[in-house]
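Translate sequence into structure tokens.
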Amino acid sequence: MLSEKIKQDFLNILKEELIPAMGCTEPIALAYASAKGMTFLEGKLEHISARCSGNIIKNVRCVRIPNSGGMTGIEAACALGAIAGNSDRHMEVLEGVTKEGLEKTVLFLKENRCMVELLESHVPLHFIIELYDSQNSVIVEVKHSHTNIVKILKNGEIIFKAADTVDVATESADRRGLNIENIFEFANEIDIEKIKPFAQKQIACNMAIAERGMVGDFGVGIGKAIFETYADSTFTRIRAYAAAASEARMDGCDMPVIITSGSGNQGITSTVPVIVYARENNISEERMYRALIFSSLLTVYQKEFIGKLSAFCGAVSAACAAGAAITYMVGGTLTQIKDTVDNTLADIPGIICDGAKASCAVKISSALDAALFAHALAMKGKVYESNTGILRDDTGETITCVGHIGRVGMQPTDQEIVKIMIQN
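Result follows.
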């Protein structure tokens, strides 16, 4: 049995990770920092300067911002947050944008009063927002995680400063106990009432935007296209609904999602497949709740080795977790769960992240196709041999190897992706 400390640690991780966010998290982070800075600026906003790391530029450049009238880009995210955002709402900072606020933002942008520069930083998630009125300046610096403000300066004087380390920024809950075995035991043993609120929020928010994506006019209509292309099955519906949710979110839908590892797409990918599968196979609510928490923690565990942002597509980690959670949900053994992870990572460890955009949805569909097939193989007792390719004897070791590739090995790839995107 798990110790009470590890159980509480895992509950704290869920509390930290499973939070609502409206829109893609990178532009929303810029909007939040800009709105926060405005609470310290005394006069009328005259100018904004945004210095952003390559990964921020990559993930904001193409994605539509909710409640913006279809705008994209760093300038729009910063201006809309500063002029019409509410920092008290954190990752839902743009929830209350008014028509007047939007009109003022559009005028501000037309007058070219927001400038963007590349910030040379070894930290993938790093940006500095500078806001000016006629007499004052406010600087807000964010590092490591989306709402982790490390410094606020007003007229050159520090008025707020926090510890500038990745551990403090992203891991106030103790994560040392995360591994597949402990996640499995936690999902089995934890009092259902302690995890029920987390799972219910995931179901309510993430399925709502999935259903909206299936009927809305977003992107290329990926959910409908999947239905029209593939034979009707549970696996087809899983891919369609998860992809539709992502496409709606990336195309500016103003509905919130419950994120995981700082990502709405990972939140969607790790939950929607579990929910759809459970509903179509008459699996009990309690079993579904436990599987959802299993999937969320397994996503977080994998991303601990990769980091919040990299050239490694986070949909792979989340899809891998969803496939393993389905194996768990249908009564698969711990060995079969591990086999699902190994089978997935033998297949798709190399999907690149070239920024947030509507086509993230099709990557989610592809990743889930691999994960669902990996689940099917594992349930038949089939798994790829260890020590072939990057697969190791232990599944946890395989996860750390993939993490090393994503965090370290793909750094040059990330730099080249950013260069290509900036040149466009």
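Note: The longest strand covers residues 126-132.
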